[in-house]
Input
Amino acid sequence: MGEILSVSNVNIAYDKNQVYKDLNLSIGSGKIVGLLGPNGSGKTTLIKMIAGLLKYKKGSIKVDGHEIGPESKALVAYLPDGSFLNEKLKVKSLIDIYSDFFKDFDKAKAVRIIGDLGIDLNSRFKALSKGNKEKVQLGLVMSRHAKIYLLDEPIGGVDPAARDYILSTIISNYDKDSTIIISTHLIQDIENVLDEVIFVKEGEILLQRNADDLRTERNQSIDDIFREEFRC
Amino acid sequence: MLINVIKYEFKNRYKTLSLMTIIFAIFTCLLSGAWYVKNKTSFCENEAVRFFWVIFSIGCVFVLIASIVCMIFQSSAGFYKRFYRNEGYLTNTLPVSSLTLHMGKFIADLIQIAYAYGLAVIAIPVILQDIKIYSKMIDVLTIAFGQIDNATLNSVSDIKGFLIIFIVATYIQTLLMVSNIDLAITIGRNFFTKNNDLLSVVFYFVIKAVDAIPSSIVSMLLAMKQLSSDYEDVSFGFMIQNMIISVLLCAAYVVVAKILTILIHKKRLNLY
Output
């Protein structure tokens, strides 16, 4: 599998606090990658830089060979941690927006995923429950045939049943040649689906390994290894 | 993609625009109806009714003006939400350049402001129960300008020209206000991580002050030129000339504000 994402010598700071200094990272295609770390470790910052929402000071980030810009954004499907859609719009209008902008968006798939939830396409987004809003957002993102899916805390703040739904939607809808980067600290729930794990601590990559190799080598689950590495 | 961005802008604005239009229509009808009742009946002879009538009229006019202001400010409020609040996570990850995003927003603004003023232009004669209001306005202005300037004001077409320039100047001024607010928001949100909304407000006034410097210099130079010439020339023509220069300056400011907004958005986007 070829390299889909490369991060070279990236530096970024908030005010005077350096978040990443000379960050280097490479991720291949066709993998589900867990971006794991405690709160404030820099997971969201990294995801936002790849999505093009944060400009870094130095270095370079390339998605399938494209620097961050309109070309890379066409290849990246991003699900932020929280609501990001206009609440006043109807669900079908939101589907139309995705269809207008993303050539890789599968409208029929979106209608099917959202329809399966029993959500009326004519209902306004703000009228949906918190759980259904998150599911609609996930449905829109996963209806793209993107090269990279960036999912920022997709299972944070939802009940266990919703977590199962979210994970099964992710697993059953992504292209096998694509890469999924999932940021979370709820490792137990996702560790079985991960191909690769990246541990992030205070703006540094502590380790990047194949999930099975790591489990075999340490004879522990990823969750246990995480707890050990990040013990307070 | 520009068409899609314009569509996206209007999808996000249409509800507020429709609501404002309905409010505008209802209050225009109410006010014009009230005028009709007042003029055709002796209903207003009672003191209490007259007092109510005055309050009602002021209220209706206030609502109409507020509707126009809301329609205009909705553009900047929408910009803030769509670019720098939670909806920014979608807007800024769309596969389009900063230039296209901002051009789409700018074109939507042009249409929206024209629409707001168009509604006002239609509503005025309806409210005043007089569809000939504009020709009467021209008569009034002809007399007014004729008194201050016998030398250069020759025809009604001069007054029409004045009215057109006045409308264009107001339109460009409004566009400049929206562009300056957008620029201030862009500076506040992208350069600072703390108190960025407050700093956006501060920067709006800084931008206004910066805008005022060249305008003041040009006005001063024009005034000096006028003072050095014959008194007879301080005239209608001078006023028109001043307005045209003001329109051109405002248009230049709009372009500069837009370029700065796009550059900062492109180079410093900071949706932390």
The helical segments of chain B are 2-40, 47-84, 88-91, 98-127, 133-148, 156-191, 196-228, 236-268.
